[in-house]
Amino acid sequence: MAGRMLMGRSGTLVLITAVELLVFLDTSVVNIALPQIGAGLHLREAGLSWVTNAYLLAFGGCMLVGGRAADLLGARRMFRAGLTLFTLASAAAGLATTPWLLIAARALQGIGGAVLIPAQLALLTRAFTEPAARRRAFGVWSAMGAAGAAIGTATGGLLTQALGWPSIFLINVPVGVLALAWSNRLLPADLARPAGARGRLDLPGAVAGTAGLLMLGYAVAAIADRDTRVAAVGLLVAALVMLAGFVVIEARTSVPLMPLRLFGVRLVTGSAVVNALVGAAHVPAFALLALYLQQTQNYDPTRSGLAVLPVAAAALVASRTFIPGLLKILGARPVLAAGLAFQAAGLGWFAALPSTVDYLADVLPPALLLGVGLPAAFVGVTAPAVTAVASTDAGVTAAIVSTAQRIGSGLGVTAVLALAATVTGAESAVTSPAYLSGLRAGFAACAGLALLGLVLTLVLLRPDPTATALVPQPTKGSH
Question: How far apart are CA 353 and CA 346, in angstroms?
C-alpha cells in the first residue's frame, strides 16, 4: 500500500512538472524560430513580435481568472480544461498557414497556460501535505519553471533546424494527450464543497482585471517604439484606469476574483513584489545572451540554444539535491535570498562579457550560477505565499504571485532592451564596441534588479512567528 501511494505521488509530481515544463518552454521556444516563421508566413518584424507577445500577454492577463476558477470549480477540473485548450491551440499553431491563425493560436496557448499554472500549484499543495515531501515537490516544480526558458531556447533551435518551425508547437500535442489520459488517475480529486460554498466567478472583475493587464502589457511593449509611443501612452493611462476600476470592483463584490484581504497576508504581498523582480531580472537575460552569442560571436541558432543548456542542467541538479535540504534547514526566505544572490552574481559576470568569447571561461560559469539561483528563487518565493493561506485560496494566491512574475518579465524585457538600445545609440553595427556596451549595460541592469529583489526579500519576507515555513496554515488569511 505504501509503495503504491509513493508511486502515485511520484506520478502526480511527474505529470504536473512535465506539463509545467511545456507551459514555460513555450515562452522561449519560438524565439529562435522567428526568422523561419517570418519567411514562411510573410510576416514582418512588427507582426513577428506578436507571435511571442500574444502568448505572454494572454498568459499574464488571464492568470487571475485561472486561479480563481481553480478555487471555485476545482483544481483538477481546471487543470484538465487548461491542458485541453493548450494542446488544441498547440496543434492549431503548428498547422497554421496564415499569420492571424498563428497569433490567435498563440493567444489561446497563453490562456491555457494561465489556467494550468494556478491549478498545478493548488494540486501540489493538496497532494503533498508532509513538510519534507512538499519541499521536494516544490523544488522539482521550481526547477521545471527555471529550466523552461533555457530548454525552450535549445529545443527551438534543434527542432527548427531539423524539422521546421511547425514542429516547435506540434511537439506539445502528444505530451498533452498523454497527460490528459493520466490526469484522472494521478491527480487528487476535487473536494466536494458544502452547499453554497462554491460561489460564482466574478465576471465584472474578470473583464476589468484581464483587460487592464492586457492593455498594460501591450502599452509597455509598444511604448519603446517611436511610431507607436503616443498611442501607447494613451493606452497606458486607460490600462491604469481599468485596473483602478478592478480594485474598486474587488473591494465591493462578495465573491471577488482577487480577494483584497490576501494582500493583508505579508507573505503574499512580499512574494508578489519579489517575484516581479525575479521575472524582470532573469527573462531579459536570455534575450541578451542570445543576441550576444548570435550577433557578436556568430553562433548559429542550434549552437546558441545549446549554449544555454547548462542553466537548465544546473537548475535540475540543484532542485534534486541540495535545495530541499536547505529549505528544511534554513526555510524559504534564506533560500530565496541565496537564489537571488546567485542570480545577481551570474548576471554581473555576464555584464563583463568580452568582445571575443571563451565559452568555458566566460559563459559557462555565470550560466551555472544563474541555473542554481533560479530554482532556489522560484521555490523560495512561491511556497510561502501558497502555504500561508487557506486551501480554498491556494489557486488565486498562486495566480497573484505568478501574475506578478509575468508582469515583471514584460516590464523587465522592455526596460532592459530599451536601456541596451539607448547605450548603443545610433551605432547599428553589431560588431561595434557600442553594441557590446549596450548588451553589457542590459546585463548590469538585470543584476541590479536581482540585488533589489534580495534586499526586498530581507525586508518584506521576515519570518512570521505564528507560522511554520512550508506548512499549510488552514485559517491564516481566510477571513
Answer: 11
- Over residues 153-208, the pLDDT tens digits come to 777 777 877 788 898 899 899 989 999 998 888 887 776 664 554 557 777 887 88
Cβ distance 327 to 131 under 8 Å? no
Rg of the chain over Cα atoms, rounded to whole angstroms, equals 21
Residue type, 273: V
Name the one residue in this structure whose C-alpha cell is 480544461.
81
Q: What is 2-185+257-460's CATH number?
A: 1.20.1250.20
Q: What is the pTM of this model?
A: 0.74
| Burial status of residue 273 (CB atoms within 10 A of its CB: 0-12, 13-18, 19 or more) | buried
Q: Hey, is 202 helix, strand or coil?
A: coil
**319: CB partners within 8 A, 6+ apart:** 139, 140, 142, 143, 146, 375, 379
Residue matched to cell numbers 515562452: 27
| Four-residue CA torsion sign, 150, 154, 159, 161 | positive
The per-residue DSSP string of 344-411 comes to HHHHHHHTT--SS--IIIIIHHHHHHHHHHHHHHHHHHHHHHHTTS-GGGHHHHHHHHHHHHHHHHHH
DSSP for 217-232, written as a single string: HHHHHHHTSGGGHHHH
